[in-house]
């Protein structure tokens, strides 16, 4: 085959690319011949167009044509589901047809995995309403293909690299306590890029301790953990034994619409359709039965990765930061409880005063990048372009808010106290300690408890739900009250937890709220979060802007009963908190 290699084969070692092509079977399709059928049997082969064209069709209408150098069939191979489009030859078409085993071997190369992941995203955009079944509830251990491979920490990196090549793997587990891991990225970034000799001991450059998860962890949780920790290799355990390692490639091969596929676009700063793709991903996960709060965790991981990538690009353009900094988020994003993208809430903390020009430019680049990705600016101005202080000044501001909690100070405190660092090297532990110490004084907690009683559940006479022109506002009357209660409970318990369910659990463990009431509030929060996301996705499907209100009578009898039970739990919790702090309702 004397012609340039098509992507991604042109990025592979020539020997590997030629070996893959040698496994292809030459076939000829005549005009109009159907090669794959929409909603038909799943694909069993990967196809490469050599000469001619094929058309992707939906219900008899052509939506795209693929010419020489184009692959097709891989979305169905990756997902195991029926093809989304019918693929039909347009004129006499020459093809190479590869068996599924050859395709799976090709995915062992990160360049190929990224290429086909991008391709799946492109094909899905042609049919945005089509959602592939993620199957993200299965145990991640089912993806393990082979036992883990270990190396001693005294082995040289040259020996380790040779072992990886011989085994056909991209990581080795490093023996010792704690367990370590050495990946192909470590060899590039910590050995080659640093100019270390081949004799360097593995233990010097390995990551310790390595993050692990039980093999029975749901696939969704594994994906979320890898997003949050920015890792590409995940060792899995059963009891004390490590049973295998899964990679981002394994997850991509299992699931075409994986959040990791979208992460690849983030890494390339392809921002133009980020918001749309997040909405599509959320709809797919929701349709698959993934709990709404877990979807929020996945989206937070993607947004964090986006911010870190924007910071990286800003530093590449502006140069290294003159002092350490922390870029942090707060509000629902800080709690990892934002499923669909809303406006930004972020700020900067600097190691010292000064360097205004650099950090103003850095903040502007990140904020503008988020806007380009479909995350609008905060109407209240709670963004790093405005909120940018030294760590010492942040401590002064937080202390002032807590010592003299006037209405605006109290509002700011409630927004900022859900902070979570996302980028930069500066630690915010000092701010966390200050919040916990000042909360013990009691004055701030009293005012915070009072604020938690501001939004009451919509219950009228005889405990019936009271609507506003037939609507109930899920944010104002359901979600916000539970978030506020949980924040108070966490501070009473001295817990640094950020997510609302975790705060409720911590509060119950420390006696800030009864276990029974905390469980009812947690169940109510999950239900109301689900209900709002369901309504928002329906609004997007109908071309309406998503909001927080739902028509009460449009809810099913079961949903109305659960809403009533949730409102009653909120009312009971607010009355108990008012009694505890001697606040008149």
The largest sheet is: 6 strands, antiparallel
CATH architecture of the largest domain: 2-Layer Sandwich
* Percentage of residues in helical conformation: 40-55%
Q: What would CATH call the class of the largest domain?
A: Alpha Beta
What's the shape? globular
Task: Supply the CATH superfamily name of the largest domain.
Answer: Beta Polymerase, domain 2
* Alpha-beta classification: alpha+beta
Tally of DSSP β-strands: 18
Number of domains: 4
Low-confidence stretches: 128-134
User: What proportion strand?
Assistant: 15-25%
CATH fold group of the largest domain: Beta Polymerase, domain 2
What gap, in angstroms, lies between the N and C termini?
81 Å
What count of helical segments does DSSP give? 22
Name the average pLDDT. Answer: 87
Query: If you compute it from the alpha carbons, what radius of gyration comes out, rounded to the nearest whole angstrom?
Result: 27 Å
Write the layout of secondary structure elements.
Elements: H1 14-22, E1 25-29, E2 34-36, E3 45-58, E4 61-66, E5 71-72, H2 74-79, E6 86-99, H3 100-106, H4 110-126, E7 150-151, H5 157-167, E8 171-174, E9 180-183, H6 184-192, H7 202-205, E10 213-214, H8 219-229, E11 233-238, E12 241-247, H9 248-254, H10 259-267, H11 274-287, H12 292-318, E13 325-329, H13 331-334, E14 346-350, H14 356-372, E15 388-390, H15 391-403, H16 407-416, E16 420-424, H17 429-439, H18 443-452, E17 471-473, H19 474-493, H20 500-509, H21 515-541, E18 549-551, H22 557-581
Parallel strand pairs: 7-8, 10-11, 14-15
Antiparallel strand pairs: 1-6, 2-6, 3-4, 3-5, 3-6, 8-9, 11-12, 13-14, 13-16, 17-18
Helix pairs in contact: 4-10, 8-12, 10-11, 10-12, 12-14, 15-16, 15-17, 18-19, 18-22, 19-20, 19-21, 19-22, 20-21, 21-22
């Amino acid at each position: 085959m004397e012609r340039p290699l098509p992507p991604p084969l042109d990025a592979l070692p020539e020997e590997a690319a030629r070996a893959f092509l040698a496994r292809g079977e030459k076939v000829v399709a005549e005009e109009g011949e159907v090669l794959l059928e929409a909603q038909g049997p799943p694909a069993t082969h990967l196809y490469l167009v050599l000469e001619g064209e094929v058309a992707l069709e939906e219900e008899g209408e052509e939506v795209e044509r693929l010419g020489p150098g184009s692959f097709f069939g891989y979305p169905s191979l990756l997902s195991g589901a029926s093809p989304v489009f019918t693929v039909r030859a347009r004129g006499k078409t020459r093809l190479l047809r590869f068996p599924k085993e050859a395709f799976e071997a090709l995915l062992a190369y990160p360049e190929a995995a990224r290429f086909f992941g991008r391709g799946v995203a492109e094909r899905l955009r042609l049919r945005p309403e089509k959602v592939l079944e993620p199957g993200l509830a299965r145990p991640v251990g089912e993806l393990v293909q082979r036992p883990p491979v270990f190396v001693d920490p005294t082995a040289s990196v040259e020996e380790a690299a040779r072992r990886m090549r011989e085994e056909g793997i991209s990581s080795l587990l490093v023996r010792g306590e704690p367990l370590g891991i050495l990946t192909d990225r470590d060899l590039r970034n910590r050995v080659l890029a640093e100019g270390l000799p081949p004799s360097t001991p593995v233990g010097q450059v390995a990551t310790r301790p390595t993050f692990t998860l039980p093999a029975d962890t749901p696939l969704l949780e594994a994906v979320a953990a890898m997003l949050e920790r920015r890792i590409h290799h995940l060792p899995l355990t059963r009891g004390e034994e490590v049973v295998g390692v899964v990679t981002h490639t394994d997850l991509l091969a299992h699931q075409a619409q994986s959040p990791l596929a979208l992460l690849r676009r983030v890494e390339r700063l392809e921002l133009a359709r980020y918001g749309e793709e997040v909405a599509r991903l959320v709809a797919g996960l929701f349709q698959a039965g993934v709990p709404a709060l877990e979807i929020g965790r996945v989206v937070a991981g993607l947004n964090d990765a986006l911010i870190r990538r924007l910071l990286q690009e800003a530093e590449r353009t502006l140069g290294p930061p003159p002092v350490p900094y922390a870029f942090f988020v707060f509000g629902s994003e800080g709690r990892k409880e934002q499923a669909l993208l809303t406006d930004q809430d972020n700020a900067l903390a600097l190691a010292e005063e000064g360097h205004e020009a650099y950090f103003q430019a850095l903040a502007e680049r990140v904020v503008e990048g988020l806007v380009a990705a479909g995350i609008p600016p905060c109407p209240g101005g709670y963004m790093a372009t405005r909120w940018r202080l030294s760590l010492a000044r942040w401590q002064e501001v937080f202390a002032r808010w807590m010592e003299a909690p006037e209405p605006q100070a109290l509002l700011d405190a409630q927004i900022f106290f859900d902070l979570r660092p996302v980028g930069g090297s500066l630690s915010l532990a000092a701010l966390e300690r200050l919040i916990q110490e000042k909360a013990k004084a009691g004055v701030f907690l009293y005012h915070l408890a009072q604020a938690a009683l501001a939004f009451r559940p919509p219950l009228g006479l005889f405990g019936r739900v009271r609507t506003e022109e037939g609507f109930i506002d899920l944010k104002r009357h359901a979600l916000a009250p539970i978030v506020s209660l949980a924040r108070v409970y966490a501070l009473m318990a001295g817990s640094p937890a950020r997510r609302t369910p975790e705060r409720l659990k911590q509060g119950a463990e420390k006696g800030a709220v009864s276990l029974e009431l905390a469980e009812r509030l947690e169940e109510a929060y999950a239900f109301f979060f689900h209900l709002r996301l369901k309504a928002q996705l329906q609004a997007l499907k109908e071309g309406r802007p998503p909001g927080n209100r739902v028509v009460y009578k449009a809810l099913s009898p079961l949903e109305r009963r659960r809403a009533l039970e949730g409102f009653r739990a909120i009312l009971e919790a607010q009355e108990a908190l008012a009694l505890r702090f001697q606040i008149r309702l």
